[in-house]
Design brief:
200 residues; Rossmann fold; five-stranded parallel β-sheet; single chain; 5 strands; alpha/beta
């Protein structure tokens, strides 16, 4: 199975950008490490195409990196930077533009024969990220509608992380409210594997 992870810094997780076979130190590496012993009879070819700081429009511009590989499954994780850059660079992405970008990414991948698993963006209740919430909610709603319309599996990560952090400090999962800790990465990896099992 050829498996591609496509996203922003949460996916990138410190990988060497010149080497798509470098899986980084985050949930992609942990997912790979768990898949191999779980399915010893399956030959996995895994790529990490995450790039930190990217928004939906940047992913759309380099979608050819994904389609050229002709993957069986693509795990798509993007969205938080469409909010974040509003505050760092003053760049606003409308709900309509976000929806179009995200839909175009999904459809281009599917038209090239791959299955797609969506991971919704998230932000945890950490002080300086609370201002993200109203904008992120809009994008999450758009992603959920795309998943429904396109009949795609969706990992509701914002809902899950904010649920578990009711009893456990949010910083345990993402110290800055966005980038996952090792514990957060393990959580994401388990959720991804649960969805991947449907194709194995």
């Amino acid at each position: 199975m050829k498996l591609v992870f496509f996203g922003d810094s949460i996916t990138e997780a410190g990988r060497k950008l010149s080497d798509p076979h470098d899986l980084g130190e985050g949930f992609v590496r942990i997912t790979a490490g768990k898949l191999l012993p779980l399915y010893p009879d399956v030959k996995f070819d895994i790529y990490n195409l995450g790039v930190g700081g990217e928004r939906t429009q940047e992913l759309l511009l380099r979608i050819g990196e994904v389609t050229t590989l002709k993957p069986d499954v693509v795990v798509l994780e993007v969205g938080v930077n469409d909010v974040w850059r509003r505050f760092t660079d003053g760049e606003t992405v409308t709900e309509e533009q976000f929806t179009k970008n995200y839909t175009d990414i999904v459809r281009t991948i599917r038209e090239n024969g791959a299955k797609v698993i969506l991971i919704e963006p998230y932000v945890l209740d950490v002080k300086d990220k609370r201002r993200f919430r109203p904008y992120l909610n809009t994008y999450i709603a758009a992603i959920r509608e795309i998943a429904r319309r396109e009949d795609l599996p969706l990992i509701p990560l914002d809902e899950i992380f904010n649920g578990v952090s009711q009893d456990i400090p949010a910083e345990e999962f993402a110290a800055d409210g966005v980038h996952p800790t090792h514990r957060g990465c393990r959580y994401i990896a388990d959720l991804v594997i649960k969805e991947l099992k449907k194709y194995l």
